[in-house]
Amino acid sequence: MSPKEYIKREPLMPQPATNFIPERDIHKSPVIECRNLGIDFGGLSAVSNFNIAMGPTEISGLIGPNGAGKTTIFNLLTKVYQPTHGTILLNGVDTHNMTPAQVSQAGIGRTFQNIRLFKDMSVIDNVLVGLHYQIDYGLGTSIFRLPRFFSEEKKAREKALELLSIFDMADMADTKSGSLPYGAQRRLEIVRALATDPCLLLLDEPAAGMNPMETEELMENIVRIRDMFQIAILLIEHDMKLVMGICEVIGVLNFGQLIAKGTPDEIQSNPAVIEAYLGKQKEE
User: Fold this and answer.
1) Which of 57, 187, 265, 267 has the fewest CB atoms within 10 Å, i.e. is most exposed?
2) Where do the domains of the chain lie, and which CATH numbers do they carry?
3) Are strands 108-110 and 200-204 parallel, antiparallel or unpaired?
4) CB atoms within 10 A of CB 165
5) Which letter does DSSP use for residue 163 in this model?
6) Cα-Cα-Cα-Cα dihedral of 42, 75, 248, 106, to 10°?
7) Is 147 helix (H, G, I), strand (E, B) or coil?
8) Is the distance from CB of 54 to CB of 250 less than 8 angstroms?
9) Which helix (H) or strand (E) holds 90?
10) By three-state DSSP, how is residue 258 classified?
11) Within a 13 Å sphere around the CA of 275, how many CA atoms are in the beta-carbon half?
């Protein structure tokens, strides 16, 4: 199936700091902007001078060899790590000194490279954890089981089932999440991230462990999520069919530095990218 069947590509427009966003987002403020972002561990620079800006409905990919710093970028955006230098703006607000919980509440949802579900809890309870900030009752209401407690819990459960239905998982609501097949656990993690009501969704290797049919379905669902929720999606992925099929902009990271950025066609033919993945050919 060709990439055009997944997503209609739009012309990319230049932004400050050599960033590009889809034309439809050009008159909107970036949902996320990183300026000279970096982090050092001791004397080692894990990420340096990372610059991106994403439109509010953009699907972008971040690729690179293992150990290039891709997941470190996600950890910086979600404040698992505090940057050593640089700035992160989320909808124009500097996230300096925010905690991971505050960043989540501000609008960044994510999945993880290694699945992090509450495996002894049911599928729907995992989603309800993501809906935590949207449940509006206090401790007293919960303890004394006042009417507001039941109405809010009912509303949250309906919302959770609605989100699960996106991935055809509503019938699994009461199943223990740890007993799900690997691919279904991956999908559940995405649903839980969506439950936090993000404006930016970070997907860390969402197709890992999926078979070709599941990956095909995932590609369709990622585009559908963007269209349905009108959010930006940034993904890390090694499956090049997925990346080239749905991403409008792709950034390539190598040794903690962004070495290329552009459309899928530009990235596939970029000599620096080819060298990073395949190595430099010896001259005759």
Assistant:
1) 265
2) 3-118+197-283 (3.40.50.300)
3) parallel
4) 13
5) H
6) -130
7) helix
8) no
9) strand 85-90
10) strand
11) 10
Q: What is the pTM of this model?
A: 0.88
The amino acid that residue 64 corresponds to is G
Which DSSP string corresponds to 15-74? ETTTEEEEGGGTTS--SEEEEEEEEEETTEEEEEEEEEEE-TT-EEEEE-STTSSHHHHH
What tens digit of pLDDT does each residue of 61-77 get?
999 999 999 999 999 99
> Cβ neighbours of residue 268 under 8 Å, at least 6 residues apart?
244
Tokens of 207: 């197709």
pLDDT range class, residue 3, cuts 50, 70, 90: very low
The residue assigned the tokens 């005759």 is 284
**Look-up of token digits 């995405």:** 190
> Over the stretch 173-212, which tens digit does the pLDDT of each residue have?
999 999 999 989 999 999 999 999 999 999 999 998 888 9
Position of tokens 């949902």?
A: 31
